[in-house]
Design goal:
With 127 residues, the protein is of the alpha+beta class. The protein has 2 helices and 6 strands. The strands form 2 sheets. The protein has a 4-stranded mixed beta sheet, covered by helices on one side. It has a two-stranded antiparallel sheet with strand order 1-2. Helix 2 links the parallel strand 4 and strand 5.
């Protein structure tokens, strides 16, 4: 049985995400810690779009190390430091996340571990 995404008609969707995801018994789960826009040398990308790109590259590397890829993501949580970043975040996310869409939560927060960090994303993958 594959991962099953739930979107009951009685609940309105406000974007490209699933309302719920069910994974079959015996599925391997990978919990990816929040990733920020730092590259492998510790350099923070400049601007929201570049930080989002780096975040998704970092997530991809963690997934790859577990023999997984973006299609295995079943839940993501995104933290943005400004609501004006929502469109840029979604534009970059849509390069990596395709249908069926994952369960998702988006939060606007006052700040992250470093004031220069504009976005942090954590995911759960199942395979």
């Amino acid at each position: 049985m594959a991962n099953k995404f739930h979107n009951p008609k009685s609940v309105t969707l406000a974007g490209k995400y699933a309302l719920g995801c069910e994974v079959p018994a015996g599925t391997r789960l990978l919990f990816v810690s929040g990733q920020v826009g730092l590259d492998g040398n510790g350099k923070l990308a400049d601007g929201i779009e570049a930080q989002c790109e780096q975040v998704w590259k970092n997530i991809g590397e963690v997934l790859k190390s577990a023999g997984m890829d973006y299609a295995d993501i079943v839940k993501m949580t995104t933290f943005l430091t400004d609501s004006r970043f929502i469109v840029a975040n979604r534009t970059v996310r849509d390069k990596y996340i395709k249908e069926p869409y994952t369960a998702s939560t988006l939060l606007i927060v006052q700040g992250l571990a470093d004031p220069s960090m504009l976005v942090e994303i954590e995911v759960t993958a199942a395979k």
